[in-house]
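Exercise 7.
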Amino acid sequence: EGLNALPTQWGFAEDAAKKHGQTVSRKNWRVVLNWHIAETREKAREEAGKGLMRWHNEYIVGTLQRPGAKPFKSPDEAVDKVGFSKGSVASIGTPDDLVKMIKGVIDMSGGLGTVIGFVHDWANIENTFRSWEMVARYVVPEINGYLEGLRKSQKYVIENRESFERSREAVMAKIMENDKAAAALSVTRSNRFAASSSNAPDLEKAKAKKA
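Solution. The predicted structure, written as tokens, is:
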């Protein structure tokens, strides 16, 4: 049943703990998932397909002799059945695909403590490292909520743009009341400071308003 069995498995854990006068906490529940991600789904499929087929046929079927497991006949079949079948425990695609999968697992399980990535050799070492780099850069911040503050800040700026503009105009008005301040502002607007002053107030516009 794959991941669909997680609620049942947690029920077993709770029942066993209760029989022995103990309790279990979801924050200590660790779930292992497989993945290989790249910039596009097509690239992820290409990078992982052959290695995934070999891993399944030689290890899962040949070595572990897992009941019901049958060899795959092609890399595409391997990717389709391991990464895109119902209840799959693997994600082969983009960072967004992995984020969606992990959030789905969290929701479907009722909550868990940690997701652990299984380290495999489906892809070559360079593409494997790149996959894990993308997990660290794009997936972990999303799953752990590190981007919520950034998005709230962006939303606030967008929704309050008029207020910022009014404040900016008020600041410019005060600057233009002082000749030294206006002269200093003209320096920040010079070509020498162009790279760092793209958001500086428009001095010429302010002069026109003052006039």
